[in-house]
Design goal:
heterodimer; A: 115 residues; mainly beta; seven-stranded mixed beta sheet; four-stranded antiparallel beta sheet; 11 strands; 0% helix; globular; B: 111 residues
């Protein structure tokens, strides 16, 4: 099992550019969570999906952020336009909602720097 | 979801047991207690969880008080690789990922 795979590992972009972060779920998992981590705010839940459907996006900071699950195994988090305050480490995590007792498996994260 | 309170930092000698406390006095009857840890620059890693009974797995033990208002994560023989931030969160088993992680406890295992 390759685990939750995130890409890219590092992203440096200029303010105003569009950024797309990618996440591949573990096979058989049907719940997907996007988190953002900064020194100031810690680990924050942005949005989560069950069976490809967004359930709660109340953590998404602004309309500049959007997330999709085009299929059961893949998700994207897009920031357009990006701003320096979006600099953070973005994690995705997945689980099987029917067997959540196994906990959530996190990816290695994408470190985003907006200059 | 109930909030948790953890000490900001703890030290432990290598080879000794590390006991990490967590208070969750507002936990509701069907909320679980989950523990994760985050080693520097990595994603959080699931450790263990429980509802009422004490639990043990290959990584750790979880002791939950009878009133469920607090719990303790025990690493029986801490190693230097256990140095990490440990998060205690509570939530319903269907959406525990929605729970707030908080600041956690930074455990430093010393030689």
């Amino acid at each position: 099992d390759a685990g939750v795979i995130q890409s890219p590992r590092h992203e440096v972009t200029e303010m105003g550019q569009e950024v797309t972060l990618r996440c591949k779920l573990i096979s058989g998992h049907n719940s997907l969570f996007w988190y953002r981590q900064t020194m100031m705010r810690g680990l924050e839940l942005l949005i989560y999906f069950n069976n490809n459907v967004p359930i709660d996006d109340s953590g998404m900071p602004e309309d500049r952020f959007s997330a999709k699950m085009p299929n059961a195994s893949f998700s994207t988090l897009k920031i357009q336009p990006s701003e320096p305050r979006d600099s953070a480490v973005y994690f995705c995590a997945s689980t099987n909602r029917d067997r959540v007792r196994n906990g959530y498996t996190f990816g290695s994260g994408t470190r985003l720097t907006v200059v | 979801d109930a909030k948790t309170t953890q000490p900001p930092s703890m030290d432990c000698a290598e080879g000794r047991a590390a006991n990490l406390p967590c208070n969750h006095s507002t936990i509701s009857g069907n909320e679980y207690v989950y523990w994760y840890r985050q080693i520097h620059s990595q994603g959080p890693q699931y450790i263990i969880h429980g509802l009422k009974n004490n639990e043990t797995n290959e990584m750790a033990s979880l002791i939950i008080t009878e009133d469920r208002k607090s719990s303790t994560l025990i690493l029986p023989h801490a190693t230097l690789r256990d140095t990490a931030v440990y998060y205690c969160i509570v939530g319903f088993n269907t959406n525990a990922g929605k729970s707030t992680f908080g600041d956690g406890t930074t455990l430093t295992v010393k030689p």
